[in-house]
Design brief:
The structure is a homodimer of 363-residue chains. Chain A is built from 14 helices and 12 strands. The first copy, chain A, is α/β, with parallel strands linked by helices and 363 residues long. The first copy, chain A, folds into 3 domains: 83 residues, no CATH class; 127 residues, Rossmann fold (3-Layer(aba) Sandwich); 131 residues, Response regulator (Rossmann fold, 3-Layer(aba) Sandwich). In chain A, helix 3 crosses helix 4, helix 10 packs parallel to helix 11 and helix 12 packs across helix 13. The interface between A and B is large, with 88 and 89 residues. The structure holds a DNA duplex (16 and 16 nucleotides).
DNA sequence: ATGAAAGCGCTAACAA
DNA sequence: TTGTTAGCGCTTTCAT
């Protein structure tokens, strides 16, 4: 019953807000309409409305008349026509593997803000961590003639991206990238971040440290893995390949791999999770197995998030500067858009930060 | 040093992936180009490529030739030109107060999926919880001639939305809405959700229950407030207006109001937080004041999220079905897009779910 | 079975 | 100081 009374219909919505010539605001006003009304040419109207009145020495009266009428009619230029003519759409494409992942959402947020500041809109594509959909999205964005592209690639394949290199469209890759592609890139310094975390674990006496990987072959994963390994090497400790498991950045993977690991290897004393989602899965598995953090097992996770501090055991994390990543991405992109000839700046790695809380036990 | 060697430039990127006439794929292929090459008219090409060969009895040879060449040239229709001509852009606008808020990100995710399934793209605007930016975004989306709009309004003002009603653009409001506007709407049943939570608190012996509000006047807030009040009324309990505080859905607000409250009213036994962010702020304040949940104080929060179960005290929450909200929003929108005359379906309220964990103490 | 032509709304070179 | 014209790439009548 509550459902049905909520939205009352009105026969005629309030009139007060409509401009005098309400009727006209209904369908879109065009240059032509204004021109006809005023008995001038569309060029004149176009010139006035694009601020070129001065340059074309248009008479103050005409100018005033045009801009008044435009305001009255609530004129807005049709961006499609404009884009078609100018070959410039003031739109950038944003391709994200999963907008509901806070990490990517954070990046998207910054990109959206940055784009707006430059007067650009953003076309959002959620590739659902699926290369096929990523390819499809990229095609779609090209049909729509975006002026630039910010891509967080799924990362398992780059064939479609090399096509993109050909077309000289401004592009920046975020988070994941491909070493062989001459594309701008911004990401976290995953190698250093993982090394720092692993070192911290080692310094606390841990030796059998499980590594819960994300997508193998993706650049963040490979660099984190290298960081993990280098830490072992630097400390002249042997690493155990059997402790490096997993193949997805998702929660499921964290859960399953942890379960499996716990069954096979009772001697593991610590876990390094390569994403917040993986950590979440691990947490769930650990809870089920009634293992206590950090008493029974220690854990460090990539990606800090607001609740990390309030967990049963506040979690030590490797924070990635996702806001900065978004900002830098926008900057790199507009650098390219504004000077198209320019070679890509190359990759920029932003430092990670180890946030020590209480999920690591000193052995 | 690591920074600079990451991205190697190549003089000429691999050629293998480019179609035979690689040169042509560089700039966009047009109907005209294909027509010229084949010595047929653009109309013919257009017809073939839009699947109208049959209807126009185009010879199989011509048809084959055209579609082959199109494939070879990697032809894709210019959506701007198409949109201009057809007055249909296959684009929907999505306006979100803050894409980095998991609640909205979840909605956006579903909307993005749904839109793709219908062959639509989405233009994303992040209004930053700012009505001015919301207005600006809406204008922008109209210039771009979107075919429909999904809006999570900031909720403090509706003037600009009544303008929108005029233009007969398919629209659906999500989460927040305005009772006087004849627009489709989908949201959670906030009244019932808040009532259920409050009842639960009362049933557990709580009487002095603080209510940490969000934006006053916004529909979710008002209905939650009503739910809270009705629960008191139904139980024939007096409510204490001094315990109803706050004016934003943000983390700051949760923190500050909790601090203030704790100082003023030592007798509060429970908190009902109107958003996940508010709850987060409350958690922080509580931790600072060294109050333990639920021993010293109980809490229930709106918006469930994955970490809720792993908090120091697993939190009892009122889960909102954000995925369903996104799905329904898409459905409502395409209902309108497909049958434009039709009156809006009115509002749809999806049930919330009280997820009982351990943040409420039985007194 | 195919083509010519107009036009969506805008801008810009050229004219006057 | 302003107008005329052409054209961006596409669809769609109207012809033939």
């Amino acid at each position: 019953m509550q459902k049905n009374k909520r939205l009352r219909r009105k026969k005629s919505p309030p009139i007060s807000v409509i401009p005098a010539n309400g009727e006209l605001s209904r369908s879109h006003t065009t240059l032509k309409r204004i021109a006809n009304q005023l008995d001038v040419s569309v060029s004149t109207v176009s010139r006035v409305l694009s601020g070129q009145a001065r340059r074309h020495r248009i008479s103050p009266q005409t100018e005033a008349a045009v801009s008044n009428l435009a305001r009255q009619f609530n004129f807005v230029p049709n961006q499609l026509a404009r884009g078609l003519r100018l070959k410039k759409t003031l739109t950038i494409g944003l391709v994200i593997p999963d907008i509901s992942n806070p990490f990517f959402a954070g990046i998207a947020h910054q990109v959206a803000l940055g784009a707006r500041q430059h007067g650009y809109s953003i076309l959002l594509c959620d590739s659902q961590e699926d290369v096929e959909l990523e390819i499809q999205s990229l095609g779609l964005l090209r049909h729509r003639h975006v002026d630039g592209l910010v891509i967080c690639p799924v990362g398992t394949s780059a064939k479609h991206l090399v096509d993109l290199v050909q077309v000289h469209l401004p592009i920046v890759l975020v988070d994941r990238y491909f070493p062989d592609l001459p594309l701008s890139y911004v990401g976290a310094d995953n190698l250093a971040g993982a090394a720092e975390a692993t070192n911290y674990l080692i310094a606390n006496g841990h030796r059998r440290i499980a590594c819960l990987q994300g997508i193998r072959g993706s650049s963040p994963n490979e660099f984190r893995l290298r960081g993990y390994r280098e830490a072992f090497a630097k400390n002249q400790l042997p690493e155990d390949p059997a402790l490096i498991v997993g193949d997805s950045f998702g929660e499921q993977s964290g859960y399953i791999e942890t379960k499996l690991l716990l069954r096979a290897r009772k001697d593991v004393t610590a876990i390094l999770a390569f994403s917040n989602l993986i950590a979440l899965g691990a947490l769930r598995a650990l809870a089920e197995e009634k293992l206590r953090i950090p008493d029974d097992i220690s854990i460090i996770a990539f990606d800090d998030q607001p609740y990390a501090a309030h967990l049963a055991t506040p979690m030590t994390t490797v924070a990635q500067p996702f806001s900065e990543m978004g900002e830098v991405a926008v900057k790199l992109l507009f650098d390219q858009i504004q000077s198209p000839q320019q070679e890509p700046k190359g990759g920029i790695l932003l430092p990670t930060r180890l946030i020590v809380r209480r999920s690591v036990k000193k052995l």
